[in-house]
């Protein structure tokens, strides 16, 4: 019976549960939307309250081709409250820099605990957002500022309390950046170089002045004067023995030419460090000319197995040179004029070296 009764119910009675469910869902959705709208409004109000700044907010882009000024509104009178203004200065060329100079008439709301929290003007590098400075109060005029690139930002902020006068005025101007010169390769100071490295470097100079400039760029002239000052130390004499006259020329000219030019004292360059076996010192000049026997002995005795051009008269001669040595404890270089003794061959002859066999 009950089942039959249900089937006989009017259609609108059967739809009542569905209508109730739809009504409840609609009410719940309306409450959610209202709640969401309320949260959004509170968040917005919180943001405005935190900043303390209203809708007066501008950014002005200025193309800088020469000198100009920018200033707080109503300068030199009291500036308005609740203001944010940003000036973006852009130089016309990439190589230009912008210089900012503040007018001595400068006054904003004072800082709190040494921090500009409320009213201030600040300068910022657009690339990287680096703040070059933020200023307020009236006790100190900001120092001139120069951009690192061809742009710079200036931001002025005032809150809703205690506006001051006169505000600020900034004069801007262009500075042409000179083309950067290639960086010179870092050179180790001479006294820090090893003996071998310093010897190689010094050998490449052609004058004494060049050597002294390389060793001490800032005081080389003083060192030159010191080298030639008389001291109490005994300085060996520098001299060259004159070559003795050989007397009367033999009438057999051809034979004499062979004797003179086959095995004779000739100019040889010698390395002083090798010749003197002084690996602890550097000499300048690093090489000197000496007379040493040279040539061939093709006309030696037919009975000689090995005929060599050898010295028959030797002389020791002094040569004055510049000597450099590292001071003990790494305290720079000791520079002195000294005499070195070198062997010179004054006479030569073809000498037969008998076969050891």
UniProtKB/TrEMBL annotation:
Subcellular location(s) per record: Secreted
InterPro entries linked to this entry: CUB_dom, Cystine-knot_cytokine, PDGF/VEGF_dom, Sperma_CUB_dom_sf
GO biological-process terms attached to the record: platelet-derived growth factor receptor signaling pathway; positive regulation of cell division; positive regulation of cell migration; positive regulation of cell population proliferation; positive regulation of ERK1 and ERK2 cascade; positive regulation of phosphatidylinositol 3-kinase/protein kinase B signal transduction
Entry keyword Transcription regulation: no
CDD domains named in the record: CUB (cd00041), PDGF (cd00135)
Superkingdom: Eukaryota
Domain (Platelet-derived growth factor (PDGF) family profile): residue spans on this chain: 263-355
Molecular function per GO: growth factor activity; platelet-derived growth factor receptor binding
Ranges for domain CUB: 58-175
Endpoints of the signal sequence: 1-29
Cellular component aspect of the GO annotation: extracellular space; membrane
Keywords on record: Cleavage on pair of basic residues, Developmental protein, Disulfide bond, Glycoprotein, Growth factor, Mitogen, Secreted, Signal
KW Signal (keyword) present: yes
Family: Belongs to the PDGF/VEGF growth factor family.
Name of the featured protein: Platelet-derived growth factor C
Source taxonomy: Eukaryota, Metazoa, Chordata, Craniata, Vertebrata
């Amino acid at each position: 019976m009950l089942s039959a009764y249900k089937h006989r119910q009017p259609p609108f009675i059967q739809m009542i549960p569905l209508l109730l469910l739809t009504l409840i869902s609609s009410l719940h959705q309306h409450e959610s939307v209202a709640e969401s709208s309320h949260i959004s409004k509170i968040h917005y109000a919180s943001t405005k309250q935190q900043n303390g700044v209203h809708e007066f907010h501008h950014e002005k882009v200025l193309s800088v081709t020469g000198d100009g000024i920018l200033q707080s509104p109503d300068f030199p009178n009291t500036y308005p409250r609740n203001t944010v203004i940003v000036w973006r200065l852009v130089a016309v060329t990439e190589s230009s820099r912008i210089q900012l100079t503040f007018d001595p008439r400068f006054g904003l709301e004072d800082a709190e605990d040494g921090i500009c929290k409320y009213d201030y003007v600040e300068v910022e590098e657009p690339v990287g957002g680096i703040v070059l400075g933020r200023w307020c109060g009236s006790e100190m005029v900001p120092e001139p500022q120069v951009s690192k690139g061809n742009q710079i930002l200036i931001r002025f902020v005032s809150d809703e309390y205690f506006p001051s006068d006169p505000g600020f005025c900034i004069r801007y101007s262009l500075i042409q950046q000179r083309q950067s010169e290639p960086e010179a390769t870092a050179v180790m100071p001479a006294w820090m170089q090893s003996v071998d490295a310093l010897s190689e470097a010094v050998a490449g100079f052609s004058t004494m002045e060049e050597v002294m400039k390389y060793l001490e760029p800032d005081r080389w002239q003083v060192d030159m004067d010191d080298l030639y000052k008389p001291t109490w130390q005994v300085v060996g004499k520098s001299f060259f023995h004159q070559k003795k006259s050989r007397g009367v020329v033999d009438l057999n000219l051809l034979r004499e030419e062979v004797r003179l030019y086959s095995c004779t004292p000739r100019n040889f360059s010698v390395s002083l460090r090798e010749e003197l076996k002084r690996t602890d010192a550097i000499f300048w000049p690093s090489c000197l000319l000496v007379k040493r026997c040279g040539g061939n002995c093709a006309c030696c005795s037919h009975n000689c197995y090995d005929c060599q051009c050898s010295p028959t008269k030797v002389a020791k001669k002094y040569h004055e040179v510049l000597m450099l040595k590292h001071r003990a404890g790494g305290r720079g270089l000791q520079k002195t004029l000294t005499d070195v003794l070198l062997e010179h061959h004054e006479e030569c002859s073809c000498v037969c070296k008998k076969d050891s066999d």
